[in-house]
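Lab channel / #folding
Pinned by the channel admin:
"Please post every new chain as: sequence first, then the structure tokens as a reply. Keep commentary short and put observations after the output so the thread stays searchable."

First post following the new format, from NK:
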Amino acid sequence: MGRGEATFHGYCGQKGVVSSIREHCNGALSKGIPLPHIMLSGQSGMGKTQLAKAIAAEMGTTCHEVYASPQTKRWQLAKVFASVKQGDLVFIDEIHALLDGPQELLYPAIDAHRVPVVDIGTHRIKEGEWIEGIPSFTVIAATDQPGRLKNALQQRLVLRFTLQPYTESEMRVIVFNRASEMGILLSPQAARRIAQASRGIPRRARHLLQSLHTVMEDSAVTVSRATATRHLASLGIDQDNLTDNDRNYLALLARRSGCVGLETVALQMGLDDVTLKRDVETWLIHQELIGIGQGRYLTEKGKAYVKKRGIA
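Reply from TO:
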């Protein structure tokens, strides 16, 4: 099996989302108007940044990238919006991390095409002074926690798309393409094994390939499935694509009767709640090995799996 074709300016997968976005791009281009504002939600590592860049390429415009955090200031956003050209995209990754003030700065930018004046010397907002009539633009807001956005901001994001985990066949294409970029030769079987271990997340595939590339002694040798499997095992990833943390989580629940609270699980595993939910529970829930009610518990499938694999 050779490398697969990318579907949308180098972007592979998410066919339904891409089809709808492309239709909107074609309509906007034919009318000579910017795209409506967009929210891309989904698990971290799903390719939201790459999709934004693909949209910019389709529209033939510039994508201004903003990586949001609680430290992002109003003046930083104002400076970005003051620099946009007609039809540009402003991609704000992790937009939920913005504090209320920076989020609220987006309202006049979106509604009235105006932003506060920034004092270049002090990097402070000149309150009451505005740059009026900034060109029309499109905000692309990316988040894995859409519920943390202020409702007023969500209501301004017209198009909303949720990225779902990629299929194994899509992941194989992504793995082949990324491996080629990195100069790694993979057998089809090795690519499939890495794709399976990636759990439908492109960023995870990239990290696994980077790790493999680091330890490879000869990049001219084609990586076999056996070699890929041994490397994954060295990272704690077993034949079922579970990690050490996954197995420890299952073992903890197996030793307890009934439901276990999230804080208890996190404390005993030495992980914070966010990491536990994002990196461990998401996959175990997807595999139907655990359930969440009054606490965390093993499903019947989970109990059978734990018994079969001798996890305790």
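NK: Residues 12 and 174 are 7 Å apart (CA to CA).
TO: also worth noting, The chain has 13 helices and nine strands.
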